[in-house]
């Protein structure tokens, strides 16, 4: 690395150290005021106010989403565009048990840090506020609205129980099954009834048999949303919801078809009618850009952050969709004891802890430093793009 880039990285590190108190306060405020997907009005307001105060030009409600925003560093010139992404939605019942209060400030902090040296680098820098990661697919909406059209590299970091740089994510589609039968007295005239719940239970049994014959990385998990009214009434309606996940889009397509067949077979066996609805937006698998992964990892090394090895399962994120259209990374930073599950009360606690807030600053620094690598050295962006188009 050139001496010049190294000194810019030092400068950004100092800038973020100076901001750590302010960013922690913002993180705590978002933590204490959890807002669900598409309702993150206060978080979006606080984040955009902070960015404006730091000189960013802010556009609110981008892509037709009220709680989305696009903030632009004013020191811009001809050259590539870097985007840091912030998420700030919470989970129903659990609050910030996925640590999005930290993600919000990692993206914002990286943006403010990099913006302080943008005059020396050239190019453009955006902080994009992306609502509703938890099931709403805010990023999918923003992609469709063209918000990522001029972005060359998109980066973000998610809190975790491990620090992982190149971990991907699974594509996911939610399916909703409605089974329609015929109500009847369950004891005096059961032969007159068509049991919609039987159709749903048969679907689960079929899926459980299918499970043995799917790829190890794929996942199918379901719940029954309606199982009837009373034991003495043959259920005339039953409902189930499934998440179907796979590592590759082609596997996901195939698996979705098989899960639908399981439901069809269940309905057929019970004599019920079936209605299938695709719910929500499809999340595509994350394609971490190997060049960005390496640069980010080197920067974490410089910050003395220990990198863990990925073993076990993966979740899904709408950052996957971004990574399919723009070179991207979605890395993880350790904020909790190993094996602390995400979406748990223990993870919520970690998201509002000293360790959480210090990891937030480390992640923001490493993202800003990676931005310096991309904008400061032409060959880096060239190989990022070559890797992106090679698969
Ligand atoms: Zn999350």
Summarize the entry for a quick read.
The protein has 391 residues and is of the alpha/beta class.
Explain how this protein is built.
The structure is a single chain. By secondary structure, the chain is α/β, with parallel strands linked by helices. The protein folds into two domains: 3-169 and 286-390, Aminopeptidase; 171-283, 2-Layer Sandwich (Alpha-Beta Plaits), CATH 3.30.70.360. The protein is built from twelve helices and ten strands. The chain has helices at residues 3-32, 41-53, 100-115, 118-121, 138-144, 196-211, 249-270, 290-302, 319-325, 345-350, 354-376, 378-390; strands at residues 57-60, 69-72, 81-86, 124-129, 153-160, 171-180, 219-226, 237-246, 273-283, 328-334. The strands form two sheets. A six-stranded mixed β-sheet has the order 1-2-4-3-5-10, with helices on both faces. The protein has a four-stranded antiparallel β-sheet with strand order 7-8-6-9. It is elongated. The mean pLDDT is 96. The protein binds zinc ion. Residues 98, 100, 133, 158 line the site of zinc ion.
Write out key terms for the chains shown:
Aminopeptidase; Alpha-Beta Plaits; 6-stranded mixed beta sheet; elongated; binds zinc ion; 10 strands; alpha/beta; 4-stranded antiparallel beta sheet; 43% helix; 2 domains; 391 residues
Termini separation comes to 28 Å
The overall strand count is 10
Tally of individual helices: 12
Radius of gyration: 23 Å
**Mean pLDDT over the residues:** 96
The count of domains is 2
* Global outline: elongated
Q: Which small compounds were modeled alongside the protein?
A: zinc ion
Strand order of the largest sheet: 1-2-4-3-5-10
């Amino acid at each position: 690395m050139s001496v010049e880039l190294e000194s810019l990285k030092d400068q950004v590190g100092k800038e973020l150290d100076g901001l750590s108190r302010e960013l922690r306060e913002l993180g705590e405020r978002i933590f204490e005021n959890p807002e669900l997907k598409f309702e993150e009005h206060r978080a979006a307001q606080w984040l955009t106010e902070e960015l404006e105060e730091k000189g960013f030009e802010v556009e609110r409600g981008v892509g037709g989403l009220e709680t989305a925003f696009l903030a632009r560093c004013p020191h811009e010139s001809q050259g590539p565009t870097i985007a840091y992404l912030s998420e700030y939605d919470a989970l129903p019942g659990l609050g910030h048990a996925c640590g999005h209060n930290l993600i919000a400030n990692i993206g914002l902090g990286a943006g403010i840090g990099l913006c302080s040296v943008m005059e020396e680098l050239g190019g453009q820098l955006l902080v994009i506020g992306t609502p509703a990661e938890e099931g709403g697919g805010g990023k999918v909406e923003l992609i469709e609205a063209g918000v990522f059209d001029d972005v060359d590299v998109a980066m973000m970091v998610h809190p975790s129980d491990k620090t992982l740089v190149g971990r991907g994510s699974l594509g996911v589609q939610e399916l909703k099954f409605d089974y329609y039968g015929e109500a009847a007295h369950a004891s005096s005239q059961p032969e007159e009834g068509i049991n919609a719940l039987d159709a749903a239970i048969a679907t689960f049994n079929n899926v459980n048999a299918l499970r043995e014959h799917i790829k190890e990385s794929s996942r199918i998990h379901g719940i029954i949303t309606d199982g009837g009214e009373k034991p003495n009434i043959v259920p005339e309606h039953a409902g189930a919801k499934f998440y179907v996940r796979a590592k590759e889009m082609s596997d996901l397509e195939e698996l979705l078809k098989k899960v639908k067949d399981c439901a069809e077979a269940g309905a057929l066996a019970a004599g019920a009618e079936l209605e299938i609805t695709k719910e929500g937006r499809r999340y595509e698998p994350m394609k971490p850009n190997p060049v960005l992964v390496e640069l980010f990892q080197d920067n974490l090394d410089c910050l003395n952050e220990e990198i863990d090895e990925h073993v076990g399962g993966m979740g899904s994120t709408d950052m996957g969709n971004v990574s399919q259209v723009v070179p991207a990374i979605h890395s993880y930073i350790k904020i909790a004891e190993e094996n602390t599950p995400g979406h748990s009360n223990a993870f919520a606690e970690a998201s509002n802890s000293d360790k959480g807030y210090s990891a937030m600053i480390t992640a923001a620094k490493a993202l800003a430093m990676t931005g310096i690598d991309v904008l400061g050295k032409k060959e880096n962006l060239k190989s990022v793009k070559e890797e992106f188009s090679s698969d």
